């Protein structure tokens, strides 16, 4: 039977953000390649069925113009806007067509939760909850992580493992997950490499963003904890002066590479390709400095989406904070404190006052995890 299945999510900047790769890999591993044709933006079965992959937030018109969709499957529906829901539902109008939503509950009163409530008494709607306990193939390693969370972070356990709502105003990242026995870890004695991630601004001064940098070590042989936050800094510097500050960052990277005995040394500085970054990256590269632009698929996301994308490895304890980064304090905008801990572990989803809060180090933290772990973030 021919079917057209559209796999959707609120934000999809590239195929890397979709289920395209996972489905392609499964087709290969199950020996089904003779029955499918994998294209850049679609997968076609030889019986005429087709898988399409769409982003809703910036691409809703292409969804509206797609004819004959039998099933629209919306992933990560907790991030859907009310506008996307209102535009999508009347678009899937083929006789017998279905819309599937799958999500991890976050906040009560979100657009997807309101839709679920409105469909609760509709006999044509199926609403079901699926948790870890419904998975007969739950890996033992994942179950150990569940039990660890139950013991060490009971306040978050219900949300992470049982599908409960996150309490309003609750911090998104758990600091305990980044510590060992509630304490920071020593600087690693060995690692593969070190790198830094920088969030830039157009100009400094009170009321404007600062420029943050986070230094990270990656160790591919440490499967449980491949990433370590080594150090951080945040400054108010005019965009035009960033070119002079970056060499200081590069020197710090070289020092950390020596201190951690990094096998491949420093692999460079990754800079947000926005604001002043879009100007200084080419200039720094012309000077022969090892700098790279962070992928646009990451920089174009909203902060909530970036945090959601890296939340799994953080909660699994795969990122640890070292003693130097944990103990450090600096003066920024007249406040002397650990601004890294304050920004990262003070972050909350759907924060109505987010525009008034400093979040440069939070951005660096999320970018740094995405750069280091890439496609293995959900592992």
Q: Helical segment tally?
A: 13
Q: Provide the domain count.
A: 3
CATH class of the largest domain: Alpha Beta
Radius of gyration: 22 Å
Order of helices and strands: EHEEEHEHEHHHEEEHEHEHHEHEEHH
Measured between the Cα atoms of the first and last residue, the distance is 34 Å
Which segments are poorly predicted (pLDDT under 50) over 5 or more consecutive residues? 13-17, 202-208
Main beta sheet, described?
Answer: 6 strands, mixed
Strand content: 15-25%
The main sheet orders its strands as 2-3-4-1-5-6
Pfam families: Terminase_3
Domain Phage terminase large subunit N-terminal: 5-163
Organism: Saccharibacter floricola DSM 15669
Protein name: Phage terminase large subunit N-terminal domain-containing protein
Explain the overall architecture.
Strands 2-3-4-1-5-6 form a six-stranded mixed beta sheet. Strands 11-10-7-8-9-12 form a six-stranded mixed beta sheet. Strands 13-14 form a two-stranded antiparallel ribbon. The chain is built from 13 helices and 14 strands. It is globular. Helix 5 (140-152) packs antiparallel against helix 6 and helix 10 packs across helix 13. By secondary structure, it is an alpha/beta fold. It starts with a strand and ends in a 6-residue tail after the last helix. It has three domains: 4-128, P-loop containing nucleotide triphosphate hydrolases (Rossmann fold, 3-Layer(aba) Sandwich); 135-162, no CATH class; 175-376, Nucleotidyltransferase, domain 5. Mean pLDDT is 83; it is low at 13-17 and 202-208.
